[in-house]
Design a protein that fits this description.
The protein contains 13 helices and twelve strands. It is α/β, with parallel strands linked by helices. It starts with a helix and ends with a helix. About 50% of the residues are buried.
Length: about 350
């Protein structure tokens, strides 16, 4: 990876490397764009194979946050942070040191809870900085509202594809049964969906089978199932040249970030195969909507009203993609960049005045 060239191409404003010896901590904070407001993005703790992989993840996720906020029409920019570590090695001292890094940015970056970061970890980080959201006592964490947004996105995709809002009797495969995937399964079950699920943790699949009568399949089987909808809710990069030929679903709508391994190549291949793709940073925006509302003073009714807008935003994106003959990913970017450009122009006019 050519670091500076990659950062320039992706349009990032700032990359920060956070390193400490006592305690040992290695973290990367990527600030993509602050045109709409301070950069907001959760923190992911993960044992990346190397620092290049960690940086790549931070760059892609932070850019996705910019587009996510813009498509959700909330006044924040995009950022992301990754801590390179095994979850077993996580300590309060490490998290507090990380909190001090966040505090040093004085509100330019606001973070929260992602992979391997718990509500308790957020409270620990908050001992050192006010620029962290997702504290359990306030909004209860992002998973339930993120799952609701994905559920609404599935319904929008069904309406666009089949001119109906009814999903009863449809076959839906959910990959990944973390907090979002589990909550999504509850919504789908309550609407009469036939569920197929997989997860690397057999306890999670057993729970969803018991609760919702789901059919459990092995992780490698999930792509080739004869289903109507495939919902990836685990890690990213799983829509690629190896998996696309296997997919039989006509809609891909899930909570995972960066689902397309190569946005341009694999977005086009989905079109060629007649598969409608819900851009991940649009359909999974419930989390950022929730924590943004926590930041400004939590109002549950207002947050849920904003999440309901995901439905209409996706219908708009599907329409743009269809009319212009482009991928849904490109359509969502155009919508986001239009809103970002307007914000930049407003700022420039204010400066000039």
């Amino acid at each position: 990876m050519q670091l500076f060239e990659t950062v320039r191409e992706m349009g990032h404003e700032q990359i920060l490397y956070c390193h400490g010896k006592n305690p040992d901590i290695r973290a990367i904070i990527a600030i993509h764009d602050t045109s709409l407001g301070p950069a907001m993005g959760a923190t992911r703790l993960y044992p990346y194979i190397n620092e290049e992989a960690a940086l790549k993840d931070a760059l892609r996720l932070s850019r996705g946050m910019t587009y996510k906020a813009a498509c959700a029409n909330i006044p924040v920019g995009g950022g992301k942070a990754v801590i390179i570590a095994n979850s077993a090695d996580k300590t309060d001292e490490m998290l507090r040191a990380y909190g001090r890094f966040i505090e040093s940015l004085k509100g330019r970056f606001i973070t929260g809870q992602d992979v391997n970061i718990t509500p308790q970890d957020v409270r620990t980080i908050k001992q050192e900085t006010n620029y962290v959201v997702g504290v359990e006592e306030k909004s209860g964490g992002p998973a339930p509202i993120t799952a609701l947004g994905v559920f609404l996105g599935i319904k929008a995709a069904v309406e666009f594809s089949w001119q109906t809002q009814r999903i009863e009797g449809m076959r839906i495969a959910v990959q990944g049964l973390g907090n979002v995937g589990k909550n999504l399964c509850q919504h789908l079950h309550e609407d009469g969906v036939e569920l197929f699920v997989t997860d690397i943790n057999p306890e999670k699949t057993a729970e969803i089978k018991r609760l919702y009568g789901a059919t459990v399949v092995e992780p490698e089987e999930i792509y080739s199932l004869d289903v109507d909808i495939f919902s990836p809710c685990a890690m990213g990069g799983i829509i690629n040249s190896q998996t696309i030929p296997l997919i039989q679903a006509k809609i891909i709508a899930g909570a995972a970030n960066n689902q397309l391994e190569n946005e341009r190549l694999h977005g086009q291949r989905l079109i060629d195969k007649g598969i409608l793709y819900c851009p991940d940073y649009v359909i999974n925006a419930g989390g950022i909507i929730n924590v943004y509302n926590e930041m400004i003073g939590y109002d549950e009714d207002k947050a849920f009203k904003q999440v309901n807008n995901i439905y209409d935003t996706l219908l708009k994106i599907f329409g743009i993609a269809h009319q212009q003959g482009i991928t849904t990913n490109d359509a969502s970017k155009r919508l986001a960049e239009e809103r970002i450009l307007k914000a930049r122009n407003r700022k420039n006019q204010q400066i000039a005045a």
